[in-house]
Design a protein that fits this description.
alpha/beta; flat; Rossmann fold; seven-stranded mixed β-sheet; 25 strands; seven-stranded antiparallel β-sheet; 21% strand
């Protein structure tokens, strides 16, 4: 049933639909002037009616639904667009973008299998639509406009599965505002910039993100009509050296190679007056070259040229080939030939050909990657972790930063290695601890979190012997007092082996939940360019992708400037254990493990800051 009503009238119609055995509701705005915003109470009552009767609902405030399947043939929208059947599925979380995407598809003569504007997403969500597209044999490409993710981990799981069968292309609205570094209380939060986390979520899910509609539809045309390239080696055929040079330069900037597997360069230049026969011969030759993964064809029109014939013949030659072919065959008036070349994506500008093949190669590489392995750690103690946090919140319901001993105990429940340290209120205690350690130690001023000794350079390393420790104690006390801080003593810690310092951190995003970060540690922690973000990784592959996204960390692990390679496996395990801790204890809303010292044989946390808040549980939705 389709309802376009507001207020109590909407509830009356919904109840009547339930009584009469309706299986689904489509709830549209009552008028074009209606913003569709209803009271929370009304929406909850509406959802109760829907769930109580076993119906499903699109909306409220939806643009509508289109389904071009012959047995359905439904166009329940107020867009006015004329839609033909095809392989493109469109889902939008807002009315205007949905209308825009549908209009662009119509203008490009792209057929649509389905369009759904989910509106308020009270019931049917973007995740539901992805699962529908997965099962629909008519759909070859999925196009999304999203503004938020109701359940980002579920979206990632579903999108990963769907993306292996059908490409998902997305425009993300409502980009994240930049956070002021001065407001951040941890190095991890200070490093976050813009949509770094959203980008990481989409990459993990195999979803291709676009900034604008033009490239979005260009890529959709390729996926709808062409196979994916098996690699990044591109063959170019054209009748202009200048255009071929522009194309080759664009390939270099997008990571494409204009050569074959033997290294032979492949812009094939034809005479300016070349026609359909010459293009046919060269395109056929490149299709048979096993060292070429994809083809780009360029045609510059001239007096008495035949762009329609060229496009028609290369379309015929490419039909059924296992390699993609894209073209820029343009008439002398700057327009594309009309009514010919069905099946070959044809673009006005040469760089558009490069852009779409680069995104296609990106998707092929995602599809070709291994799935990864989930860890099976038998020494995790989730019960102890939850009990520890509950006891802290019982004493301090507002939460806050954990003391160092409590933070160390929390990490220990999940087997995260932490360097042993001792807080000393006086020099004599520090001397005794150092004697027990029996070797060089690190001495750090003791501050209540989130303050750090490194902020005022109140850290001394490699102190050995009573004389060195006494001098170091006095020097730290002087530095702290000079900085206007209260001197409360110092922390004595066994000196860690040399290696690289890494930041492993986390914070709770209001829309995405727990977010984990990896970047350069120590004094470089928080530099946004050096920190990579993602949802907590679940497999070894996802963890390696997170590590590699922080180029500085990856370089140090691999052995920077002839240094010995460091223990990547140990860092991977530490991150996975930390991710499992975050899932177990969602009350952790901010954390810095900084630095994590990575050596050639292991990793260990040298310092940490952890903040908790009582978890605010959402009101459960009734499901009958």
């Amino acid at each position: 049933m389709i309802i376009a009503a507001a207020g109590d009238e909407l509830l009356e119609f919904a109840a009547e639909a339930a009584t009469n055995g309706a299986r689904a509701l489509l709830v549209l705005p009552a008028s074009l002037e209606d913003d569709g915003v209803g009271s929370v109470e009304r929406d909850e009552r509406l959802l109760e009616i829907v769930r109580g009767s076993g119906m499903r609902m699109v909306g409220p405030s939806a643009l509508g639904v289109i389904n071009t399947a012959p047995e359905v043939s439904l166009n329940a929208t107020f867009s006015g667009a004329s839609v033909r059947a095809g392989a493109l599925a469109i889902a939008a979380q807002a009315v205007a973008p949905g209308i825009g995407l549908l209009g662009h598809a119509q203008a490009r003569q792209m057929g649509v299998s389905m369009l759904v504007s989910v509106g308020g997403r009270a019931d049917v969500s973007t995740n539901d639509l992805l699962e529908w597209c997965e099962a629909d044999d008519r759909t070859a490409v999925v196009m999304l406009y999203v503004e938020s993710f109701g359940n980002p981990e579920r979206f990632t799981r579903i999108a990963q599965r769907v993306s292996r069968r059908k490409p998902i292309l997305v425009i993300k609205g409502r980009r994240s505002a930049e956070r002021a570094r001065s407001q951040a209380r941890s190095d991890t939060a200070a490093a976050l910039r813009g949509d770094a986390v959203i980008d990481a979520v989409l990459r993990r899910a195999g979803v291709l993100r676009f900034d604008g509609s033009e490239e979005l539809f260009h890529v959709a045309q390729l996926f709808e009509s062409q196979p994916l390239p098996s690699g990044r080696r591109i063959g170019i055929v054209g009748n202009s050296a200048s255009v071929a040079t522009l194309a080759a330069d664009a390939c270099a900037t997008r990571g494409l190679e204009v050569r074959d597997a033997r290294g032979a360069p492949y812009p094939v230049l034809l005479a300016l007056g070349a026609g359909a026969d010459e293009y046919t011969a060269q395109v056929r030759a490149l299709f048979t070259n096993v060292g070429i993964d994809a083809l780009m064809v360029y045609y510059v029109d001239r007096l008495e040229g035949d762009p329609e014939g060229v496009l028609e013949t290369i379309s015929a030659v490419s039909s059924g080939q296992p390699k993609p072919l894209v073209a820029s065959v343009v008439r002398s008036d700057g327009r594309l030939p009309a009514g010919s070349g069905a099946g070959v994506p044809n673009y006005v500008f040469p760089e558009s050909c490069v852009a779409v093949l680069a995104r296609a190669a990106e998707h092929r590489e995602w599809l070709s990657r291994p799935l990864g392995v989930r860890p099976d750690y038998r020494d995790l103690d989730g019960i102890a972790a939850r009990a520890l946090i509950s006891s802290v919140l019982d004493r301090a319901p507002e939460g806050g930063w954990l003391s160092m001993p409590v933070a160390e105990a929390l990490l220990a429940t999940h087997g995260i290695p932490v360097a042993l340290s001792c807080r000393c209120r006086d020099l004599e205690r520090a001397l005794a601890v150092a004697q027990e350690i029996g070797g060089p130690v690190a001495l750090k001023a003791d501050f209540a979190p989130p303050a750090r000794a490194g902020e005022i350079d109140a850290v001394l390393l490699a102190l050995e012997g009573e004389s060195a420790l006494r001098s170091g104690w006095r020097e730290l006390e002087r530095r702290v007092q000079t900085a206007g801080r209260e001197w409360t003593g110092a922390i004595v810690q066994r000196l860690a082996r040399s290696g690289a310092d890494v930041l492993v951190g986390a914070f709770s995003d209001p829309d995405l939940g727990a977010v984990i970060a990896v970047g350069l540690g120590g004094r470089q922690a928080g530099l946004s360019e050096a920190v990579a973000f993602s949802l907590p990784p679940a497999t070894d592959l996802e963890t390696d992708e997170l590590i590699d996204s922080s180029h500085g960390v990856a370089a140090q692990l691999d052995g920077f400037r002839d240094a010995a390679a460091l223990d990547r496996q140990a860092l991977r395990e530490l991150i996975l254990r930390f991710a499992l801790l975050l899932r177990e204890v969602p009350e952790v809303v901010e954390a810095d493990l900084n630095p994590v010292r990575c050596t050639t044989n292991g990793c260990v946390v040298l310092d940490m800051r952890v903040r908790i808040e009582r978890r605010r549980r959402g009101k459960p939705v009734k499901t009958w």
